[in-house]
Design goal:
Its main location: secreted. Belongs to the avidin/streptavidin family. By secondary structure, the protein is mainly beta. It is about 10% helix and about 45% strand. It has an eight-stranded antiparallel β-barrel. Strand 6 and strand 7 form a beta hairpin. The longest helix has 17 residues. The termini are far apart. The structure holds biotin. The site of biotin has 15 residues, from strand 7.
Length: about 150
């Protein structure tokens, strides 16, 4: 009806001035994050298409060589509700033959602080196909923003 569409327009006009629609909870992964194991990662920059790269500093390892910072590449959704899903791969090539993939989602906790809930698969290299069954570990990590 003309009356209700006038009301709708009034509401839209009001929201322009009163910011009633202005709660854009972005989920930009750029920056430093720390997980429950003490591992840290830096996401350098998220591109306009959601792809990103960074560096992962794991606090723990099952490899024999000393831990080194490791490159990561990933992709995130760009939804504006602050609850984007994402995935990334870490190649531990400097000290391990393994590869890890993480998938997760960003949330804004009750306190408004950003948190990432992730699940991961860690694939180790085995010397024979008959050992394939034991080559993949899985787990979960929660990350909080450091900076
Ligand atoms: C390796 O052990 O071969 C390389 C390091 C793997 C570190 C894993 S990846 C999943 C879990 N979450 C972390 O932050 N570190 C471990």
């Amino acid at each position: 009806t003309p009356h209700s569409s006038a009301l709708l327009e009034l509401h839209q006009l009001l929201s322009l001035f009163m910011d009633t629609n202005a709660h854009p909870q972005q989920c930009d992964l750029t920056g430093w994050w720390k997980n429950d194991l003490g591992s840290r990662m830096q996401v350098f920059k998220v591109e306009n298409d959601g792809t990103f790269s960074g560096e992962y500093h794991t606090a723990v390892s099952s490899a024999m060589k000393p831990i080194q910072p490791s490159p990561l590449v990933g992709s995130q959704h760009l939804d504006e509700d602050g609850q984007c899903t994402f995935g990334f791969t870490v190649n531990w090539k400097k000290f391990s033959d393994s590869t890890a993939v993480f998938v997760g989602q960003c949330f804004n906790g009750g306190d408004g602080k950003e948190v990432l809930h992730t699940s991961w698969l860690l694939r180790e290299k085995v010397d024979a196909e008959s050992n394939d069954w034991k080559a993949t570990r899985t787990g979960r990590n929660t990350f909080a923003r450091m900076g």
